[in-house]
Amino acid sequence: MPAFGPIQQPGTFQGVPIKVGGENDPVPVHLEDGKEKHIVYAKRSLAKQIAAHLFASVVRVEGVGKWNRSASGAWEMQSFQAQSFQIVEDADIRKNIGELRSIASAWKQTNDPLKKLDGIRRGAK
Question: pTM surpassing 0.90?
């Protein structure tokens, strides 16, 4: 498989901000998502807004990344420029499941929804 890149692709990263800042603009913003850590770059004005949530909230940043693909097929991010962010609310799984169950939908009347989904994926009618 040939290596290629960089390519630009919109994307998102999320995590708790654990470090924000630097001398240059844009500045690095370090996000911790479980065991993974991501470093994205943001203009100082956006980084300042994200810094208000340091160690406190999970944030989701949206932006554009530059990626390379190695000869082995693995993708590696060169850089990611954050353009916006939002706070990710804490989830209550029981409440979320209840909200999903309350949505009216025809698939709920299907005897075997997994079989139906498999048919949709494979193009069966």
Answer: no
